[in-house]
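User: For my dataset I need records formatted as: sequence, then structure tokens, nothing else. Please produce one.
Assistant:
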Amino acid sequence: MAAYTCNTCGMSVGSMTCGHCDKELIHDTITTGSGAEVAVSRCPDGHGKVKSPMCCGNDMTCQIGGAD
């Protein structure tokens, strides 16, 4: 299970699921047109992706290893 954690206050978010297939979203990144890397959570079946959670005005981080 991917767990996102706020590096400022320690808040944590557990699993998020796709509304179409109910599968757990997978942590991933995308690169914007300007070259910035953005954290996203995506459906493993390709139903889409959302920007990963924010807390205290910053993106929450996710450890890739063990996230599955």
